Amino acid sequence: MSVQFYNTLTREKGEFKPLEGNKVRIYSCGPTVYSYAHIGNFRAYVFMDTLRRVLQYNGYELNHVMNITDVGHLESDADEGEDKMEKAARKENKNPYEIAKYYTEIFFRDMERLQIQKPETIAKATEHITEMLEFVQGLVKNEYAYETSRGIYFDISKLDQYPVLSNRNIDEQIAGARVDVDEEKRNPYDFALWIKAPETHIMKWESPWGLSYPGWHIECSAMGRKYLGDEFDIHTGGIDHIPTHHENEIAQSKGLTGKVPAKFWMHVEFLQVDGGKMSKSLGNTYTLDQLQEKGIEPLAYKLFCFTAHYRTKLNFTFDTALSTQKALNRLREGFLKHQEGTTDISNEKIKEYEDKFLATINDDLNMPAAMGLVWEIIRNQEKSKQYAKLLAKFDNVLGLDLTNSKQYLEQAKKVDFPKEIAELLEKRKQARENKDWAMSDQIRDELKEKGYSVKDTKEGMTVEKI
Ligand code: AMP
Ligand code: ZN
Fold it and tell me: What is the DSSP secondary-structure string of 59-79?
């Protein structure tokens, strides 16, 4: 069945076919590890995960690279401000490598909690300085780059077209822009490939231009080329990457190899919070830990991401996320009911659902519609093991760990009891061990009055908040 993806480069949906055989080569722009990743960032990686899973579901093999930006990402995408890593190091009184290590570890722990598959190759910028330097030297040799007192810049006027990804009209923008005028730049939109390091800069390397460090965009061009070749299948990122980062990656590759590196450019829209932008100053850049404190599991956040198509804005509120947590538990209960079911469902019916699911995910990853189908199966009055099997198959795309539903539900029931309640429960347990049924019943009634319902089952005592 044909797979259709929206391509930012062509501004339309088109059929996806790998460049070579059955193998899909993908590059995803990864995190800048100067701070905790927030739920907005994770929307981008949930999208990346869904893309991987959909391609695998279609039988493709993946060669997927994601970078870790641990140097060169300045505070503004337009080469202004401090390096984010150095700034964080100064603030936390650590060295930038320690900062990178700490936040990278937490990032991957969170990725696991979201059941996001790890790309085949994780490439750190600081481990690819040689490749980046060679790339820049190649651009200088091809006369696409020039030196200023600040660093090495890419000359966009050498290209046949700039920009190619975004619709922005450079001339209009230049006319009305608050451009920081760098008299040494040949064109206002020329960007830094390599930056000469001030004395105080910690991360710097020897180069033909003295001690210096890479600009942000060059890492993705150099590492993409190293692991995936001059041309590969798909490049992903957030929509904020379109006008600068990806535009400049394309410029760099065209300058060196004459080619646009990827065939398909896929971009995920932003997550908003309470109807507006996420920002540190508004204090709404929530982490997965902060969601968990409010009773929202990472997987509930993943399910929440499926409520909107990846190319539309998604608005996060704690109320909707809490409803999604309840929905996730209903999904688990529904799955378990089907597992216990005995109805025989016709092969045609199962095939019909399989075909619909495949058509939906292959239509530019339409996850809201795919979830609609999943809910239809869950709600089906006829309970059947075949439906449970089908849902487990679909979970290869959802990545919600449905086959472990029982464990999640049991975990959810384990409440942290207040001291007084915990003591009563312990007293009741002892009463039952002593076969003091009158005392056991009395404590049960007492617990009920305090808002806890106790049941005695074959597996032992269960307690729920009423
Ligand atoms: P950064 O660590 O800042 O380089 O960003 C990592 C990824 O998160 C990039 O792909 C961004 O496009 C993406 N991103 C940042 N903020 C949001 C947001 N609010 N919604 C969705 N994606 C975002
Ligand atoms: Zn990138």
Answer: T-EEEEEEEEB-S--EEETTT
